[in-house]
Amino acid sequence: MNDMNDRLERRAARTARLAADEEPIIAELVAAVGVAVVSVYDFVGERIAPGEAIPILTRHLGIKHEPNVREGIIRALGIPTARDLAFKPLRDAYPLERDPTWQWVIANALAGMASFEEVADLPRIDQYEKLFPKRRRSSRPR
């Protein structure tokens, strides 16, 4: 029984940490977007981040966040409409990351907005080439 209580307490503490970390982002997003946002993951998947959310999410790329929150921010930015603001920060973040899992997350976001040719010079990016669509034409220079 004690082991179960310990696990429940750890889970509750983790949930509280994530909520506290995400709270300022959510407040900014609600103010900017004008709709209910519960999590940065609201903009992952079928509900893409609206234009008003992109600058907020991009700014938070440079702020230390809990890993789950950071992943949600990166994934939410992996869309073509985020390219103008998020491409350079994501591209700059990739070579700084040594963890292969985080490299994959960032590469996947880059693949949502750029061609492989635009990032081919990044170290170790070739292992993620399959994430990138074939022959995506970019309208923006690097």
Walk me through the topology.
Blueprint: H1 2-33, H2 54-61, H3 67-76, H4 83-93, H5 100-111
Short recap of the structure:
This protein is an all-alpha fold. It has helices at residues 2-33, 54-61, 67-76, 83-93, 100-111.
Mean pLDDT: 90
Overall, the morphology is globular
Amino- and carboxy-terminal Cα gap: 57 Å
Multimerization status: single chain
How would you characterize this protein structure?
It is built from five helices and no strands. It is mostly helical and 142 residues long. The protein has one domain. The longest helix is centred in the N-terminal third of the chain and has 32 residues.
Descriptive labels:
globular, mainly alpha, 142 residues
